[in-house]
Amino acid sequence: MQNPSGRLSPPSAVTVDAPARLHLGFLDPNASLDRAFGSVGLTIDGCGTRITARVADEMRIEGAATDAQRERIARLLDQLHNAYGGPPVAIDVQRTPRAHTGLGSGTQLALAVGTAFVRLAGRTASTAGLARLLGRGARSGIGIHGFDHGGVLVDGGRSGSTSGIARLPPLLFRQPFPDAWRVLLVDDTSREGLHGDEERRGLASLAPFPPALAAHLCHLALMRILPAVAESDFDAFARGITELQRTIGEYFAPVQGGVFASPAVARALESVAAGQTAGIGQTSWGPTGFAFVESAGEAERALAAVRAASRDTPAIAYAVVTGRNRGATWRATDLERCGIDAA
User: Fold this and answer.
1) Where is the GHMP kinase C-terminal domain (predicted)?
2) Which of 96, 146, 166, 325 would disulfide-bridge 21, Cβ 3.0–4.6 Å?
3) Above 70 in pLDDT, residue 78?
4) Exposure string (b/e) for 248-275, b if CB count within 10 Å is 16 or more?
5) Do 138 and 7 contact (CB within 8 A), yes or no?
6) Residues in contact with 207: Cβ distance below 8 Å, sequence separation at least 6, in sequence order
């Protein structure tokens, strides 16, 4: 339906599907070569976030997994109302990853809620603008760029000359993840990764990152990992990711208890790498770890190895997923009734 000005009326309900992401490693955590952080990442199908937002008489939040998640959504809605106005909104949380497991759940939830809200309010906003308003992307830009684009991503970190400016790290590389490759995720459900004040204290306690290691990681990304993705060279990709993860994991080991935050996840992934070519590591602060494998058949082999290694560890959960080569999608209920695809 159009209003008298000829513009489409805002929908009364919007559903947003946002992908989970794997953070595959920082390139320079504390700007030893001028730009801080810089990240390699991948969006994945499975484990994503889905919310539906509706115009309502009063703010309501349904389906939240925890009280903390409910409180976070309420804060997001307050920030959005202050910035954009608009009617009260009810949020129905239909699916989210477990929080603080390395899948980018906080950023994807914030961007999904923000995207739905501005559409219900009849406003427009960029993903970068929503992220800035909602306090996301303080270090890595992978989750924000992944929300827009999907695929394998590299951001350029933050320049030391722009400290204090809330600017999204620039997207330097985006390439589709090869369709045949698979990712085995292994989660220790008894643990959470570092977050909040604990994360900030942990980062502050670390020694300066050696410039030579930053140079090594940048070279590894530019001359091994990214060409391997572009050429679908799985063996080179697996070696590069494993080396990147080992190097950055050793740096973070003093604050997360080892190269992997969960010893059980480490054992499971090492059992995979012992029997087949795989790129193994941990996403962000974990505890979720991953093993990249070359095909669906290799994923079945990897699953069997993880099951055997985790037989006595009931907290271990696992799943096989594919890369996602598109960003978030949204659909408006009113438009769907008219047969219009808004995604």
Assistant:
1) 226-309
2) 146
3) yes
4) bbebbeebbeebbbbebbbbbbbbbbee
5) no
6) none
> Residues of 68-100 as b/e, b for ≥16 C-beta within 10 angstroms?
ebbebbeebbebbbebbebbebbbbbeebbbbb
d(CA 29, CA 225): 19
Domains of the chain, earliest start first: 8-176 (3.30.230.10), 178-321 (3.30.70.890)
Q: Which two tokens stand for residue 301?
A: 């082999």
Strands 35-55 and 158-159: antiparallel
Tokens of 133: 């308003």
**Cα dihedral sign, 298-299-300-301:** positive
Q: Is the confidence at residue 49, as pLDDT, over 60?
A: yes
Report residue 30 as tokens. 């504390």
Q: What are phi and psi of 234, to 5 degrees?
A: -65, -45
| Location of structure tokens 């009810």 | 90
Residue 309 to residue 296: CA distance in whole angstroms: 20
Residues 222 and 45: their CA atoms lie apart, in Å, by 25
* 324, HSE (Cβ side, Cα atoms, 13 Å): 26
Give the distance, in angstroms, between the CA of residue 93 and the centroid of all CA atoms in the same chain: 18
- For residue 104, the one-letter residue type is G
Q: Which of 95-104, 156-165, 187-196, 303-312 has the lowest mean pLDDT?
A: 156-165
Residue 159 neighbours by CB under 8 Å, 6+ apart: 34, 35
Rounded to 5°, angle at Cα 114 from 108 and 118: 150
Mean pLDDT of 227-253: 97
Identity at 166, one-letter amino acid code: A
Give the pTM.
0.91
- Residue type, position 247, single letter: T
Instruction: Retrieve residue 121's tokens.
Output: 């309010």
CB atoms inside a 10 Å sphere around CB 32: 16
